[in-house]
Amino acid sequence: MKQLKHLEQTDLLWTRWQHDQDKQARDALVVAHLPLVQKVVYKMSSTWNAAVNFDDLVSMGTLGLIEAIERFDPMRGYEFVTFATWRIRGAVLDGLRSQDWVPRSLRTKAKEIEAAYAQVEHELLRSAEDEEIAQRLNMPITEFRQTLYELSVSPLVSLDGILKSDDAGSEVTVADTIIDPNAAQPETSIERSMVQEMLMKVLTRLPEKERLVVTLHYYEEFSFKDIAEILELSGSRVSQLHTKAIYRLRGALSRLKQELRS
């Protein structure tokens, strides 16, 4: 009964905001959806070992929530929570970028590693070994693994990394392309379908431990600490496996984008 009453009150707030531009209704909607901001931020920050203040991230995400409420159009056919999640993620990532959390040199190395994974795995049609990627980068294997470690403890690598923007200006992340049969699909396009198909192929081709880390974290929503206990690995090892898996995925998807444009 309480839940029904809450839904009715929320619907009334949406009506007051969208029909009358009542700012008090907008503010009430922001307060009502703050738990969503905290949920999204918690899930994003659980992949980062870097010291990032949670309250700062929530503040960044709240700006995304406000933008989502102001821009949400129910006529487009998807749920507000789905739309708001995109905006919250984007606002947090934009906030981190503006504060230069990651050195430019590390970002450059990240792009080089992503490109190397894309090239080598396309040529080999299988998951590349560390030595093969290091060789393509003309980098000693010890330096390559040290770089992976530095990336794994930064907030740079995540399935929340932006892949592209759609025609409406909405950002699409790698995580948005993972198929969830129980989730409503807000967009249906040939390109998105091809990205999903490619991603599923790459997921099945990942080395077993990397695939387990991705599956447990993004599908089952286990924390890295929980995954480390399940797989009997150290937390840092789980973080590094996650880093390599994500660069394989991003490399394959970036190559697909190039093919779609050509």
TrEMBL record:
<dbReference type="InterPro" id="IPR014284">
    <property type="entry name" value="RNA_pol_sigma-70_dom"/>
</dbReference>
<dbReference type="Pfam" id="PF04539">
    <property type="entry name" value="Sigma70_r3"/>
</dbReference>
<keyword id="KW-0238">DNA-binding</keyword>
<dbReference type="InterPro" id="IPR013324">
    <property type="entry name" value="RNA_pol_sigma_r3/r4-like"/>
</dbReference>
<dbReference type="InterPro" id="IPR007627">
    <property type="entry name" value="RNA_pol_sigma70_r2"/>
</dbReference>
<dbReference type="InterPro" id="IPR000943">
    <property type="entry name" value="RNA_pol_sigma70"/>
</dbReference>
<dbReference type="GO" id="GO:0003677">
    <property type="term" value="F:DNA binding"/>
</dbReference>
<dbReference type="GO" id="GO:0016987">
    <property type="term" value="F:sigma factor activity"/>
</dbReference>
<dbReference type="InterPro" id="IPR013325">
    <property type="entry name" value="RNA_pol_sigma_r2"/>
</dbReference>
<dbReference type="InterPro" id="IPR007624">
    <property type="entry name" value="RNA_pol_sigma70_r3"/>
</dbReference>
<dbReference type="InterPro" id="IPR007630">
    <property type="entry name" value="RNA_pol_sigma70_r4"/>
</dbReference>
<protein>
    <recommendedName>
        <fullName>RNA polymerase sigma factor</fullName>
    </recommendedName>
</protein>
<dbReference type="Pfam" id="PF04542">
    <property type="entry name" value="Sigma70_r2"/>
</dbReference>
<dbReference type="InterPro" id="IPR012845">
    <property type="entry name" value="RNA_pol_sigma_FliA_WhiG"/>
</dbReference>
<keyword id="KW-0731">Sigma factor</keyword>
<dbReference type="Pfam" id="PF04545">
    <property type="entry name" value="Sigma70_r4"/>
</dbReference>
<dbReference type="GO" id="GO:0003899">
    <property type="term" value="F:DNA-directed RNA polymerase activity"/>
</dbReference>
<feature type="domain" description="RNA polymerase sigma-70">
    <location>
        <begin position="56"/>
        <end position="69"/>
    </location>
</feature>
<dbReference type="GO" id="GO:0006352">
    <property type="term" value="P:DNA-templated transcription initiation"/>
</dbReference>
<keyword id="KW-0805">Transcription regulation</keyword>
<keyword id="KW-0804">Transcription</keyword>
<feature type="domain" description="RNA polymerase sigma-70">
    <location>
        <begin position="223"/>
        <end position="249"/>
    </location>
</feature>
<comment type="function">
    <text>Sigma factors are initiation factors that promote the attachment of RNA polymerase to specific initiation sites and are then released.</text>
</comment>
<comment type="similarity">
    <text>Belongs to the sigma-70 factor family.</text>
</comment>
